[in-house]
Structure formats: structure tokens, C-alpha cells
Amino acid sequence: PAKTMDELVSLCKRRGFIFQGSEIYGGMQGAYDYGPLGIELKNNLKAAWWRSMVYERDDVEGLDAAIIQNKNVYKYSGHEDTFTDPMVDCHECKSRMRADHMKDIKVCDNCGSTNVTEPRDFNLMFKTNVGPMVNEESYTYLRPETAQGIFTNFKNVVDSTSRALPFGIAQIGKSFRNEITPRNFIFRVREFEQMELEFFCKPGEDEKWHEFWVGARKQWWLDQGLAEENIEFEYVTGDDLAHYSKSTVDILYKFPHGFEELEGVANRTDYDLGSHTKAQEEFGLSAKVKKNEHSTAKLAIRDLEANKWEVPFCIEPSAGLDRGLLAVMTEAYTEEELPNGSTRTVLKFKPHLAPIKVAIMPLKKNKPEIVALAKELKNKLQKLGLGRILYENTGNVGKGYRRHDEVGTPICVTVDFDSIEKEGAPVTVRDRDTMEQIVVPAADLPAYVINYFIN
Ligand code: ATP
Q: What is the per-residue pLDDT across 72-115, written as a single tens digit (0 to 9) for each?
């Protein structure tokens, strides 16, 4: 794995994974842009999550709610009142910082001075104005988590799918938080993507499902290539527990800057649906909620056995896509010493995450028959639907291998003179991890590639 963030940042920029946002204007703190390879990696990680959360289960539905919502959503979710971090100002160097890691004596992160203010609450939501009239009522917020869109659509999903408990709703999308101190590359940013599942169950079955999802989510991260020894659980307790949570387990990963949260799995009880439902008094809610004077929908489900309406409990595995991508890159980053004494950098991505699946390289860039066969193979492989297949005509195969090691392309295929002269059109297939080369007849290449990526 990568030892420092710097080596990752530099590879990401050099090869087109991630760039500083607004770079040509001097940058913008806490905002990053994903380049040609970064977007492929991101899409592959999202697709893997969606496959495992929605397609491979029969009790989860998908959703894509709006980022901008009625401000009452945040009034009743509790974000308007409590979505804050403690902040201190330094009188000496004038910087501002989060104070939740500071103990009794507060020390400036920047200059070490103890001449700092008392902590005060800073709300992390971005406020924005909606419509052409700017007045006291015309504001709302950019969503600070995707979850609220799931709760507000609970009735729509139940009514349109006839779901009964237990079942879940999954969503991937952007979230925004005005972090006081964004840092550590894409680890803590102001605009990021989350992959969230809200899994609804009967009260009393919540603890069993919480335990299930903690285990399932850890296994998923292992399936994305993270090593067991680089994952830890943290049981969140006391003051660190969010106001809505009965218990939370954070899944931590060993990032270059240390073990930090990758995903949180929270037991949110009946807090959220109970907060957003109308007729709260009918349900005997277990969570303490603000009285709702605006909701028009009953966010409850009929328990047929008991013949009554019930607000379900909810288990939430909430993962950061950007943090996930950083974890996967950290883990994949490998520097290897080769027998000839040189070193190579390889990103050992799991095949399903690799931004480029196969690179096809003609040995000679101006030999028409070689070029034609290489292009034909590219088109054939592209149609398999595995992801990006790159036809790359630079005429320098050695350099191509090095570049594709560095961006984690699992397979390189070279088309050479043998391929156009010999019977069966043999092409050379080179493996990223072993660097072994084998010869495969061109007609067998699609089957070979499918077998490699599907197994
Ligand atoms: P932290 O304590 O690190 O601020 P959090 O506990 O506030 O995180 P949650 O509200 O549980 O985070 O959000 C769920 C997930 O969303 C996190 O596990 C993380 O992967 C991701 N996430 C949250 N805030 C950010 C951010 N500022 N930048 C990138 N990802 C984030």
C-alpha cells in the first residue's frame, strides 16, 4: 500500500485520476475534480456497490432524490439545529479549526498557541437561495447527506412497490458539508458522494440487522481489495454518538494519515421516519422527535399480524465514495523491485475496479494490417460490456506496459507481425501482476477476457 499521501496525490495528477478543483484560478479548498481515469474508477466502485446492495438482494430498491429539497426536511431531520462541529479561532495566527479532537486545554493546530477562543457550534450545511426573490423565507440547504431523500420518499416507494418489512432503499449521490478544515486530499472535502442504504425493519429486529450490516459491509470492502489488517471497527459511544443513533459502528481504514472512518453503520431507530411523519402521536415512537406541523404523509407501514400501523426502525450503512476510492487506491498502490534491479509502480486494483480493462497495442503504428487487426479486437472486446477497452497506438509497447501498470490495467494485448502472418492470428497477452506473457489466438481473445473478468 501507499505509505504517504504525497505519492498518491502525485500519481493521481500525473496519470489523470484526480485534480485540484479550480486549479487554474489557484484552487478551491476541499473540492477536487475527477479526471479521465478517476471517473472510470469512481463509476466502477459505484457499480460494485449498486450490484451488491440492489441487484444481488431482493429486498432493496434504488432511488435518486433531488439535492435541493424543501427546507422543512432539515428542520425536522434535526440538521438545522444540531448538524454542527465545534470550532475555535486562534487569536495569534487568526486560523479557524475544528475543536472536537481537542481535550481540556485547547491548542491551535496551526501555530501551537493556547490563545484560542472557547469552542462554538458551527453549522456545516451550505445555505442557498431558491428562486428570484431573496428574502428571509427563500432559503434552503444543499443536502449534507443523501439519507433524507430516502426518508421523505418512504411512502412513495412502499406504495409503488408493495414492500413489506424488512426492506431497504439505496441511493448514491452528492452531499455537501461546509467543513471547517478540509484536508488529507479527498478524505475530507466540502463536496463528496455518498453511497447510503436505509434498511427498514421491525422494532426489536433492529439489533440483529445492525449486526448483519456491519458484517456485510466489512465483507464488501474486503471484496474491493482492502486487506483485513487495514480495517478496524470503532464502536461509537457517549457524546460521539449522533443524536438520532442508538448505536453506531464505524468501519475504519488505514489511510496514509492513519486509521480513519470509511463508513458508518448506524441504528437510527424510528427517529427519521418518526420525525418526518404526520400524526406522530398515533405511533408510540421510541425516539425523541420534534413535533411535526408540516408533514402531509404517514411514514408508517401496516403490521398485518398485529393489525396496526407501525413506524419501522432503520439501519443505515453510509459510505463515502471519495473515501472509498482513496482507500482502494491506497491499498492498490505497490512499488515492486524487479529482477533487473529497477522498480515499477503498479496499481493492483481488483479487475472489476480497474479504470481500463484491456489495452490493445499494435507493435508497429504504421503497418496497416497490424493496426486493422488491433482495432478490430478493440471493437470486439468493447462490445462485451466490461468497461473501457483502450486502443492505444503509440508504437512503444515497453512504455505502454509501464504506463498501464501505473494505472492498474489488468491486461495488455499486443498485435505484432506474428499476428498477421501466422495461422490463427496469435496475439500476446500480458498480465499486470505477474508480468507473464502468453500467446492467444485472436479468435479466442474475447472468451479469454470474459473468463478473466467474470471469475
Ligand atoms: P467525520 O467524522 O469523518 O466527519 P462523519 O461521521 O461526520 O465523518 P457521516 O455523517 O457518518 O460522517 O457520513 C457517512 C460517510 O460519508 C462517512 O463515513 C464518510 O465516508 C463520508 N463523508 C462524510 N463527510 C465527508 C467529507 N467531508 N468528505 C468526504 N467524505 C465524507
A: 999 999 999 999 999 999 999 999 999 988 888 899 999 999 99
Q: Distance from the CA of 125 to the center of ligand 1, in angstroms?
A: 13
Question: CA-CA distance, 374 to 363, in Å (whole number)?
Answer: 9
ipTM of this complex: 0.98
Say if ligand 1 is within 6 A of residue 319 CB.
yes
192 lines ligand 1 (CB under 6 A): yes
Q: Is 79 in the pocket of ligand 1 (CB under 6 A)?
A: no
Architecture of the domain delimited by 354-454: 3-Layer(aba) Sandwich (3.40)
Return d(Cα 282, Cα 280) in angstroms, integer. Answer: 5
Measuring from atom 16 of ligand 1, which residue has the nearest CA?
A: 320
Centre of ligand 1 from the C-alpha of residue 165, in Å: 28
**CATH number 3.10.180.10 is the correct assignment for the domain at 40-81+131-328:** no
Question: What DSSP string describes 391-418?
Answer: E---S-HHHHHHHHHHHT-SEEEEE-HH
The pLDDT tens digits for 351-377 are 999 999 999 999 998 899 999 999 999
